[in-house]
Amino acid sequence: MSTIAIIGGQWGDEGKGKVVDLLAQEAQVIVRFSGGDNAGHTVINPYGEFKLHLVPVGIFSPHAVCIIGNGVVINPAVLIDELDQLNQRGVDTTRLFISDRAHLIMPYHILLDGLEEESRAGKAIGTTRRGIGPAFADKVARLGIRTGDLLDEEVLLERLRFILDYKNIMLTKIYGVSPLPLDEVYGKYCRYGERLAPHIRETATMLEEALSREELVLLEGAQGALLDPDFGTYPYTTSSSPLVGGSCLGAGLSPFRINRALGVFKAYCTRVGAGPMPTELKDEIGDLIRDRAHEYGTTTGRPRRCGWFDAVAARFSTRINGFTGIVVTRLDILDGFAQLKICVGYELDGDKTDYFPASVAALERCQPIYEELPGWQASIRHIRQYEQLPIEARQYIARLEELTSCPVNLICVGPGREENIYKTPIF
Ligand code: IMP
């Protein structure tokens, strides 16, 4: 079979959860490879409605193995809570495995995320305050603690003592808050270790074995390409790579093993948190999209900023990821608009450009150049065949394909597992 990466093409929240849930019906292995519990995947399926932050959405496929890869940072309390909730609702979680190389989110990471945001004052990033940035910073600074360390209490104690001494100096001397007691943190993480031990494995080998059996492997993205710390709107980004490139490192897999990369894009744009968003609509159309689509963060409940589809950003993220196909989600939200707009270029300091700039200062000055397309005046939620979509909806999709130079494989017209239109085959 093959390996398919499912990647957010915008600023996250594109509906990857639904797409993974759908494709996982055919897959044997599903791997989360980046981020942490800053992600929030909403899934509506025959088990009910779920909001998952860490457990791969593939957990709903009864025969699939799910892996939280080495590239994810794990808050054990959140993971255990998620496992308990899934178990209570009849979902088998014995098929979930956690890489022994995945780093842990510690209580000081969460504290520092909040303290750092407050100290940034007007320059705050608008993080989810889940400790993601500080945990990834510690990974690179070689001050991290990994899930594998939970399996040996002596190793854990020695590591924690060394790191907590240093963190407590930061907490007390820089931020003037109380230190964290070693015995309390140690006791808590020992209990987490006992609970999670049956799930902790060397998962890269499991993945290699699955590939040698020619199984279908899905790499489940979190966040979106424009939040990538290298290629996104830095510094208004997350701290791990949500790109196809990031999926190799975060899952523990060679790039040559990936056969397809699906870019998931909403039919419009949203962003949550601070940072530039050229097509943001601060008017009644933006409010209408937010209300109609319930655009509020799954993890933080914050209202999402809404705007028209940005094809400059989409072309950039398609190229940087090498998408082989696109999934357009939430097309039904655009039902009933008389006119639709797509941003086809930017005006920057009096010049036209179709390049997505590296500098946020430049991106903030970019004025969108719009192309107008006629809307469709009917509900499309019941439609399952591409040819039955109104001509205006097909024109809209065709224009997205032209502007991104990438074929659209799948269109989602509602949140349910069956509310889709296959335009061209994915497999
Ligand atoms: P962090 O990942 O919590 O550090 O937040 C950094 C930025 O990424 C903030 O603007 C967040 O709102 C944004 N972000 C992080 N995770 C997600 C997500 O799953 N969806 C959308 N935005 C996200």
Low-confidence stretches: none
Number of beta strands: 20
* Number of structurally distinct domains: 3
Question: DSSP strand (E) fraction?
Answer: 15-25%
Nearest-integer average pLDDT: 96
Q: Strand order, biggest sheet? A: 9-7-5-2-10-1-11-15-19-20
Ligands and ions found: inosinic acid
End-to-end distance: 9 Å
Category from helices, strands and their pairing = alpha/beta
- The CATH topology of the largest domain: Adenylosuccinate Synthetase, Chain A, domain 1
Characterize the structure shown:
By secondary structure, the protein is of the alpha/beta class. The chain folds into 3 domains: about 5-100 and about 200-260, Adenylosuccinate Synthetase, Chain A, domain 1 (3-Layer(aba) Sandwich); about 105-195, Adenylosuccinate Synthetase, subunit A, domain 2; about 265-420, Alpha-Beta Complex (Adenylosuccinate Synthetase, Chain A, domain 3). It has helices at about 15-25, 75-90, 105-120, 130-140, 155-175, 180-195, 205-210, 245-250, 285-295, 310-320, 360-365, 390-405, and strands at about 5-10, 30, 40-45, 50, 65-70, 75, 95-100, 105, 200, 215-220, 260-265, 270, 305, 310, 325-330, 340-350, 350-355, 365-375, 410, 420. The protein has a 10-stranded mixed β-sheet, sandwiched between helices. Strands 14, 16, 17 and 18 form a 4-stranded mixed β-sheet that branches. Helix 3 (about 105-120) crosses helix 4. The chain is globular, with a radius of gyration of 22 Å. The structure holds inosinic acid. The site of inosinic acid has 21 residues, from helix 4.
